[in-house]
Amino acid sequence: MRNKNFKSALVMLFIVYSMAAYSQPVNQDRIGPPLDKAYDRVHIDDLKPLTYPYLRESDVFWEKRVWRVVDLREKINQPLYYPETPQGRWRSLMDVLWYAVLGGEITAYEYNTATDNFELLLPLTANQVEQNLSDSVMRKQQDPNDPNAFIDVKTLDEFEPTDVVRFLIKEDWIFDKQRSEMQVRILGICPQTPDILETGELSGYKNLFWLYFDEIRPILARSEVFNLHNSANRLSYDEFFLTRQFSSYITKEDNVYNRQIREYTLGIDALLESDRIKEELRNFEGELWVY
Asked: Cα–Cα distance between 269 and 244 in angstroms, integer?
């Protein structure tokens, strides 16, 4: 009798599991607009920036500010540059930032050679940013009064996000004695475009405007960056920056002369100076525990 009851319980359990398995919804029965994926992605709009650890002024044991350049032409940084044409939710970093500025979601601040202190920089309207980045170009067009003649006509070339090939980043490295750890806080990010002379030669890079990083983080958290290792686990731009998955080189550290590395050394020596500053930042925390 006991064996009979046990067998009946197993049969009932099998039936319940079978019903549960067959009752699961299947994607083939989905009714609605076509998707470019085998499943719905519904959580990307709910993503929020990762929370920084709480930091008090009294806990700051040591601090250094550095400025670094992220060159999008480096292979490791190419996920920030591509796609050149938006592919649904997948857009380049500058495309995300540019249309957020034009839409009034984030504020652009003027680039000032005298200071990059956000408390002193002037905010720009979307129209001001658009006008500042539009280039006046003289083009030859057919004269409406004489089909055989051509005249020079001044036209405006609109700014294209693909023109940005570098980003200047301003950040603070802070040792928190409460947690006994080094923390990095990005303060601002500035897109840069090549400055091309009329001869076609590269004379440097134009700094377009500053963006306050804490303000743009909610936008970055909702925007995907390509994951080279797993397409099902796309990172957000916020995660990409906070986990330091980019390559860069330092162009300046805070100093009494307020000068950049290129102002006191050039060529290979400038690269070595950049590496020296990187090494100091990397070794500082470890050297605190050497007895």
From this structure: 25
Between 71 and 22, the more confident residue is: 71
The pLDDT value recorded for residue 94 is: 97
Longest CA–CA separation in the chain, Å: 108
> What average pLDDT does range 189-194 have in this prediction?
96
Q: What is the pLDDT of residue 167?
A: 98
What are the domain boundaries of the chain? 39-131+162-286
Distance CA 70, CA 74 (A): 9
The set of residues, in sequence order, having a beta carbon less than 8 Å from that of 101 and lying 6+ positions away, is 107, 108, 126, 129, 209, 211
Which band of pLDDT confidence, cut at 50, 70 and 90, is reported for residue 47? confident
